[in-house]
Amino acid sequence: xxxxxxxxxxxxxxxFEVFPPKAWDKxxxxxxxxxxxxxxxxxxxxxxxxxxxxxxxxxxxxxxxVSKCGITPLSHLTCLTSTKNKVTDVIDTFKSRGxxxxxxxxxxxxxxxxxxxxxHYHYAYELINTIKTRGDFCIGGACYPEVxxxxxxxxxxxxxLKQKVDCGLDFLTTQMFFDxxxxxxFRENCAIKGINVPIIAGIMPITxxxxxxxxxxLSGCRLPKxxxxxxxxxxxxxGAMKQAGIIYAxxxxxxxxxxxxxxxxxxxxxxxxxxxxIMNGLSEILYE
Length: 288
Ligand code: FAD
What we know:
alpha/beta; 12 helices
């Protein structure tokens, strides 16, 4: 099923992200994670794609497992560090395995990376143009409520986002954010710019103190004072921090839904019990 059809009727959707293993001997563990998460009945499940194509074969395997569970998979695909030929091969592999949905991404620039030649892509919009020529895919893209770290300013970032959407994106998924006000301003800016595709809000439940530093470094997003206080108080107590992180994410989602945001994506970090707890906290809301 195409994600665009899942998002069409503007009913509430909650999707999960899963990442494939780095080594083949862990594939069965990740398949088990997928099966466990599928029990919470997400609207779809996205499968990340390693930088430089690492684990790309495993990504297709994991997407197959998502399908076997009766859930629609969304396969991520990055392009920066692969040649155009290699990227085309991956798109064709996705197609032959029945994958209909691709999240088209540029990928992060590795340290010391020399910006590539004509055999490589520079930006996600070029990848979107290629995907369009390879089949009838539903294509999503990434967006950044707190501005992509490489962008000089919001105006430039939104300009580039508009260009990307106009290449034929069906939906956008946001980078994680912890302050809903940031998202509401971003949503308004998109509307002003004429970016009219569905925007899925990406929520990361922070369940341990050590993952905070990593998440903030990767995403460049800010932690609001309210969340900092939670970490200060509970960061040294793993059980309390996990519970507080799940409740914070659940409250964020409820506030988003109360403000008309119907599409939520949970960065589950491959933790089925976290995904399930959030869904439990929304049980009546999801089926209102
Ligand atoms: P782009 O849209 O190409 O934008 C990158 C930068 O270039 C931005 O600053 C943009 O403003 C600028 N830009 C765009 N077009 C132009 C132009 N024409 N001229 C000048 N500047 C331009 N990474 C992974 O490795 N694997 C994953 O599975 C993965 N999944 C992700 C899922 C989501 C929902 C998100 C939000 C991010 C994900 N990432 C993933 C990270 C992503 O690859 C990085 O954030 C990357 O740095 C940017 O990718 P993009 O597709 O947004 O790039």
